[in-house]
User: Fold this.
Amino acid sequence: MRIKSIGQKTPGLIVCAGILLVIAVWLAGQIAGRTGVTDPRVRMVSVTTAEVARSKQQQRYQAVQRVMEGEVATTAERVQEATGLALAASLLVASELGQGRAPASADHLAAALLQRGMLPGFSSGQQPGAVVTSHGTFVIRYRRAPIGIEVVSLGNNREAGPAILIRMPGDERENDSGIWLTQSLDEIAIPRPFASSAEVIAAGWTPDALPPIQ
Assistant:
């Protein structure tokens, strides 16, 4: 991986590194609160007829299976993967900035993350800045000035759920960091890198739209 030197350390770089670390911790807390794994339990109900009891038990098992294996659960897993990727990228950029360096591009950033073993379960994708898992493709978007990181996640199929955008902001004029999901599973318009909130919404994305799994 090629890390481009940006000269001696400056207070501005140290501030950027600190901001990225704070955002990473905040976003991790936000995601954990929305996609934390729950422990589904089947509550047995005493009934007088064994057949009715077995039927109710089967219905509960089926409901638990739908939650654990359905689109919502897969989407939650993809959000966690995209968030982990965004956090890892932010920490690496913050570390490099603290040493007076910065990745030259999103492609070099993705390569560095893989080479340093910071992305377990991920492998290199075909397009620049892309990595893949069993759930789909994740594209890293990286902006050097002001510092910004985005991760766009596209599922392998409809069952994998909507497209996901995780944004780590670098522009203090907008407070739009967090999760974005597309409203459609078929017609997906990918916004340009670091587009404004209004532009992302106009493209058919909804901010902070993932419901918690209960």
